[in-house]
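Lecture notes, structural biology module. Today: joint structure prediction for complexes of two components.
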Amino acid sequence: MQTNFNIYQFNLNTNKMKTTIKKFNNSASKQLKMAAIALVATLAFSSCSKDDETVPAPVNEEELITTVTATYTPVGGGTAITLKYKDLDAEGANPPVITVSGTFEKNKTYNGLVTVLNESSNPVDDITLEIIEEGVDHQLFYQKTGTLNAFSYATAPSNFDKNGKPVGLQSVFTTTEAATGNLIITLRHEPNKSGANVSNGDITNASGATDFEVTFPISVSSL
Amino acid sequence: MLKKNFVFFCLFLFCNSNYAQNSISGKIICQEKISFSDVHIHIDKKIIISDAFGNYGAKNLPNGNIKINISYIGYQSIDTILELKSNLELDFKLKRYTTQLHEVLILQKTNSNIKSVQQQQLKTATIEKYSNQSLGDALKEIAGVSTLKTGNSVVKPIINGLYGSRVPVINNNVKLEDQEWGSEHAPNIDVNASDKIIVIKGSSGLQYSGDAIGGLVILELLSVKKDTLFGKTILNYDTNGKGGSVTSSIHKGNNVGFSWNALGTFKYMGDKEAPDYVLSNTGNRNANFTGDIKYAAKKYNTSVFYSYYKTLIGILSASHIGSVNDLYHSITDNQPSVVNEFTYTIKNPKQDVEHQIAKFNFNYYFNELESMSFQYDFQQNKRLEYDIRRGNYNNTAALDLDLKTNSLSIDYIKNDHDWNFKSGIRASAQNNYANPATGIRPLIPNYDKIDLGVYGIISHHFSDTFLMDGGLRYDFAKIDATKFYQKSRWDERGYDPEFSGFIVGDFASQWLTEPSFIYHNLSASVGFHKELENNLHLYTNISFASRNPNPSELFSDGLHHSTGVIELGDLNLNKEQSTKLSVTLQKKYDRFSFEINPYINRIQDYIFLKPVGFETTIRGAFPVWEYHQTNARLIGIDVQTHWDISKQWQHLFSLGYVNGKDISTDEPLIDMPPLNINNKIRFSKKEWKDLILELKSEIVFKQNRYPDNNFYTNIIQDGAFVPVLVDVSTPPPAYHLMHFYSEMKFQTFTKAITTVAFSVQNILNVSYRDYLNRQRFFADEIGRSFQIQLKFNY
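The predicted structure, tokenised, for the full assembly:
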């Protein structure tokens, strides 16, 4: 491999050659000087830049979701059940704090409402508004495990986007007998709302990206 | 191992001394008064200068025919062959040309790279074939080089099983600083700008870098030493992606005075297609301008170089996954989750990268044997990665890094008789700025880095057929970072109390830290090249190199959006240290030649990314990959053969195999390229417009040696959580591809040549996945594509 080629061109006139070399020496030293100045300048610049910076501040993670709260209020009075999923350090190492305020009563209809917050920013940011505003690009899904009855979307117009497809912040849970299991609430971003059964709340063909996916262990009391 | 090798060495030295060693000396005589030190004397392989009176001498010459060439501008050059049996004294008389020439150019190639390692080279013709593709694709032509891909536009070279920071790329004598640590960051290079691409396997290229544990990729710009002006334009069209590229260059050559090169490339591609579906959002754009101006005088030359590269790359929509459940579905369904109609539009996720290089270079030649060069270069790499985000954030980059590097280097070369010596110093200052406006905690923090390297390489021809070389390099590096750590992460990593000194501020849930590390590294290389009888060449080299953990390995912390994985760096990481023994056996018969290159590379504290488990976030559970360190051993072999079956028919073969083992756990290493075999049959006929027809078979075996990092996750099936296996470890099956290439040349005008090339990639439209494609969990590789290339030389 050749990285360098030495090139020589020779003149027969040796006197001429001498003068060329002289000339060159001048220009070379000039160029070297220039380069040295440039280098010093750059080094000075890069070492100064640090001092010029103000004290760094942590990145403001405005987009983060830290808290998902689902409140289920029984129709005709009774104790509302609050399901809360809170993870203040998001991708940090701390596990989330999941709280369920109580057990559901049997033979009742509960109206659920989901609120989404970013509690890491100051003031606390209510992301629910953003989801409503961009309803077309969002849909919540409710899945259950165990003996629980299925959750369905509330039929109120406010639960749908401008195309008439569900956004799903509001849900309905009708209890019958005693049951236990998990409720998994998922928010999908840019889902395929026209996928098979997606508008009925089936997540299977929804695709899109998951903004949150939270699981609550819940039970319906036998009393 | 070392001991054995040393014995081997001595054996060769001994063999060597059996050869007769003769000398030639004498005087150059001239009637006129000339500068004798400017007379060129080439005796056999040696370059000599005479003293001021014309006395010269050459030693260590073998028995047999010796070629002598003596020249001086304006005088008739002397070309003769002598049969040498003993020492000889010989005078030469220079005679004036009767027709006087104004000037004559003599090129002397000072091979300054290590010679005990056989280098691999891609020439212009090969590079032009890959005009519409990436550097990584082109390098696959070389045995032992494979690629690490993210989709099909982000391609990184893997040399002998190693990639990333272990394979520095030298672009026109500038070490590319473009955040090469990320596996989804391709080198920011336009292949069209290079006239020649060289691969040095292993770390022996000490003048460039001391940390090239994998190897070096060296790109060189065209340099024309002749007064001429010529140009080239290449047009490409690819049916797969329904787009193409145009690249055009003009070169003004000159031996003295000004010469320059200018090149522009523009590329526009839409979605690529696999045999069964469109690979949605895989389009890309690419623009490059490269230019330089050089002024050459008798004793010096100086040049200014500038290159601007910009690329916009769509990342496969289906690879944007949420939690582990999505990953599970993608792997088990074997079908991309998003397939849209073909489009040229590039949506999020995407990468938008800009790279600039400016260089000033000055070379001074003391005489034919001694030269010095000075170089200053500046690089800026701006990387923007866009992710699918909510609302207006969609237009804000999720990662915004600005990396600036200033370097200064001085090199000195001295050749003397049988000795070649090269030494130099390189200093660089680097700054990385992670823009906090992204609203996402950056994977790579702000940092300042200072590097200082000093090296010396020496080689000596003990005889005409035996050469030894050695090199030593010392590198100093200091990195000062500024990073916010979540307190929970800081505790989980166990950084207290060892690193508590780095903490400089308390911001509620986060620590502000200023980690600082200093490294002192030594690297060395020693080896020999022996030419045995019958054109059999043996190259042997041992190299030792150290690589510092890069910022990604030290500081990564958080969800890597493009892979759906939480990547965790480790401040505890030590530098990697590699010792590689490489042997190359090369033999040329009349019509057949082969090259076999076995090697063993022992790497202490080898850094790799290991899947370790899960972490639950609000977006679901994500797999956690941590940077770990172990002791590794790589053994491999590269084979290349060339057979001229007849005047028209040729056969080319190449094979690359590497076996990587984690010696601490006795397990295979992750991400090692599987055995691959390439066969090419070429038919060429000059009489038929320089017709070339090529059929290439590419076989990539299944990698059967892999560590099991599979894990279980719970998915909901029929109203219950069911644990399922997420198979992230099993490599995809073997595949066999066929490619076709053809070209013809036409003389369009007296001075212009048009080359028309037609090629087909993946002729059989095979659906396959590759173990070393980060997106193998999400989609197949690209299917058949027809390419047309028009090349105009003028």
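Point to remember: Residues 7 and 175 of chain A are 91 Å apart (CA to CA).
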